[in-house]
């Protein structure tokens, strides 16, 4: 944009000066150039605006082509396993062909602009020289005036062409940035309420009051959901996939706002506290943790960015990831790759657990935190989690019931509703989903009562 400003201002001043000089030599020459400048500028603006939709189309096809390529590369393992290389190559070739067609159409219209621009320049040059020749025959102009007019026109034409080129560059940049600008214009769905206050967690008591929520219209995830978790209580959510277990944690972290009802922590409605303080009070270990392409030390320290190196190492030891970190050539300085691809699933989960241990928040949420661990590693992590859970309000989501047997309460969710609530010893004696799941996972060793 700065380049356009630097091009337009000198051109404007030059054009005004030349028109003034020509007017002083002869009003006909000045008026003719002024009219031509108005026509030239108007046509340029009209043509540039006309071609803009074609630039938008080309930019859109370029984004789609990049998306097709990124999708294929990020799913390289699946493509290989299903012999999909020819198919993906065909998809990418189709995307490239569509981009080529759209880009060619934009270039063709751009060429038309250059053609119109060239015609107008030749026309005004010839017309003004013809007028000047007629005036010279009448003795109103001299040979020096001819040289002056031609020199002025050539300088003006050069500057106009440069300014037009910069204008087209700007419109090209606008076309390429339009998609991103549209994304940036989308308002945040979840934001701090006016006058929101920081959340100060004392006991860590959590209460869901008549919470209703749906991801899409007509697809209700939770309906009039009520739940009370006392401070320091360890609660597990179990149930089939899609029952609403992860939804409960996402609403607690306020990744989404509820459609109806409210969620409270220590009596404070989380919709009226700052998002930063809310999430600072909760340590979350996801099922599939994603790491930064940074060192292991930085990834663990992200739980508490002012932690010392010794505190990071202590957290890593409690999460039983210190052992494999020290075997790496660069130890804690090892970079883990984009999204942590250089580590196994179990190693990533242990890093995520170490991060949560370091954060030491009063509320702990574990979403299948040991799902990627082998039995030996899981046993070690369970010991670390027992230490981590002390004095905290804990919510655990699990499919393997063996990992939640020692919880204070086990809540069974089905279709967004609580169908059972109690301790492990109580639930296995009752007919219902929990007993069925336990019998399946335990190999049927329980006897029917």
TrEMBL record:
<dbReference type="Pfam" id="PF00664">
    <property type="entry name" value="ABC_membrane"/>
</dbReference>
<feature type="transmembrane region" description="Helical">
    <location>
        <begin position="29"/>
        <end position="48"/>
    </location>
</feature>
<keyword id="KW-0067">ATP-binding</keyword>
<protein>
    <submittedName>
        <fullName>ABC transporter family protein</fullName>
    </submittedName>
</protein>
<keyword id="KW-0472">Membrane</keyword>
<dbReference type="InterPro" id="IPR011527">
    <property type="entry name" value="ABC1_TM_dom"/>
</dbReference>
<dbReference type="GO" id="GO:0005886">
    <property type="term" value="C:plasma membrane"/>
</dbReference>
<feature type="transmembrane region" description="Helical">
    <location>
        <begin position="113"/>
        <end position="136"/>
    </location>
</feature>
<dbReference type="InterPro" id="IPR003439">
    <property type="entry name" value="ABC_transporter-like_ATP-bd"/>
</dbReference>
<keyword id="KW-0812">Transmembrane</keyword>
<keyword id="KW-0813">Transport</keyword>
<dbReference type="InterPro" id="IPR036640">
    <property type="entry name" value="ABC1_TM_sf"/>
</dbReference>
<dbReference type="InterPro" id="IPR017871">
    <property type="entry name" value="ABC_transporter-like_CS"/>
</dbReference>
<dbReference type="InterPro" id="IPR039421">
    <property type="entry name" value="Type_1_exporter"/>
</dbReference>
<feature type="domain" description="ABC transporter">
    <location>
        <begin position="206"/>
        <end position="440"/>
    </location>
</feature>
<feature type="transmembrane region" description="Helical">
    <location>
        <begin position="5"/>
        <end position="23"/>
    </location>
</feature>
<keyword id="KW-0547">Nucleotide-binding</keyword>
<keyword id="KW-1133">Transmembrane helix</keyword>
<dbReference type="InterPro" id="IPR027417">
    <property type="entry name" value="P-loop_NTPase"/>
</dbReference>
<feature type="domain" description="ABC transmembrane type-1">
    <location>
        <begin position="1"/>
        <end position="165"/>
    </location>
</feature>
<dbReference type="InterPro" id="IPR003593">
    <property type="entry name" value="AAA+_ATPase"/>
</dbReference>
<dbReference type="GO" id="GO:0140359">
    <property type="term" value="F:ABC-type transporter activity"/>
</dbReference>
<dbReference type="Pfam" id="PF00005">
    <property type="entry name" value="ABC_tran"/>
</dbReference>
<dbReference type="GO" id="GO:0016887">
    <property type="term" value="F:ATP hydrolysis activity"/>
</dbReference>
<dbReference type="GO" id="GO:0005524">
    <property type="term" value="F:ATP binding"/>
</dbReference>
<dbReference type="GO" id="GO:0034040">
    <property type="term" value="F:ATPase-coupled lipid transmembrane transporter activity"/>
</dbReference>
């Amino acid at each position: 944009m700065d380049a356009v400003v630097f091009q337009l201002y000198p051109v404007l001043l030059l054009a005004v000066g030349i028109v003034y000089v020509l007017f002083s030599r002869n009003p006909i020459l000045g008026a003719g150039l002024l009219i031509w400048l108005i026509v030239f500028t108007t046509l340029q603006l009209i043509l540039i605006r006309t071609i803009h939709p074609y630039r938008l189309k080309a930019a859109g096809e370029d984004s789609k082509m990049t998306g097709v390529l990124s999708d294929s590369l990020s799913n390289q393992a699946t493509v290989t396993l299903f012999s999909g290389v020819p198919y993906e190559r065909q998809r990418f070739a189709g995307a490239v062909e569509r981009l080529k067609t759209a880009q060619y159409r934009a270039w063709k219209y751009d060429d038309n602009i250059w053609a119109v621009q060239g015609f107008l320049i030749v026309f005004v040059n010839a017309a003004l020289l013809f007028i000047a020749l007629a005036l010279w025959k009448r003795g109103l102009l001299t040979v020096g005036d001819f040289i002056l007019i031609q020199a002025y026109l050539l300088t003006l034409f050069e500057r106009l062409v440069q300014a037009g080129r910069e204008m087209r560059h700007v419109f090209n940049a606008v076309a390429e940035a339009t998609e991103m600008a549209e994304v940036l214009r989308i308002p945040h769905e979840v934001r701090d309420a006016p006058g929101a206050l920081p959340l100060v967690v004392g006991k860590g008591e959590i209460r869901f009051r008549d919470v209703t929520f749906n991801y899409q219209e007509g697809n209700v995830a939770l309906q009039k959901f009520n739940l009370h978790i006392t401070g320091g209580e360890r609660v597990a959510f179990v149930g089939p996939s899609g029952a609403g277990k992860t939804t409960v944690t996402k609403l607690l972290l306020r990744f989404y706002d509820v459609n109806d009802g409210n969620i409270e922590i220590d009596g404070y409605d989380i919709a009226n506290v700052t998002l930063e303080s809310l999430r600072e009070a909760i340590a979350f270990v996801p099922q599939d943790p994603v790491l930064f392409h940074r060192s292991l030390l930085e990834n663990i320290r992200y739980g508490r960015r002012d932690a010392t190196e010794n505190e990071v190492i202590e957290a890593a030891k409690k999460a039983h990831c210190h052992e494999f970190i020290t075997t790496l050539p660069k130890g804690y300085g090892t970079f883990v790759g984009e999204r942590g691809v250089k580590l196994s699933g179990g190693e990533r989960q242990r890093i995520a657990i170490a991060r949560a241990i370091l954060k030491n928040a009063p509320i702990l949420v574990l979403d299948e935190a040991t799902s990627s661990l082998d039995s030996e590693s899981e046993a070690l992590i369970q010991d670390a989690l027992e230490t981590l859970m002390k004095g905290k309000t804990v919510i655990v989501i699990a499919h393997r019931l063996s990992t939640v047997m020692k919880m204070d309460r086990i809540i069974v969710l089905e279709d967004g509703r609580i169908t059972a609530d109690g301790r492990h010893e109580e639930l296995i004696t009752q007919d219902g989903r929990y007993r069925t799941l336990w019998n399946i996972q335990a190999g049927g060793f329980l006897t029917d009562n």
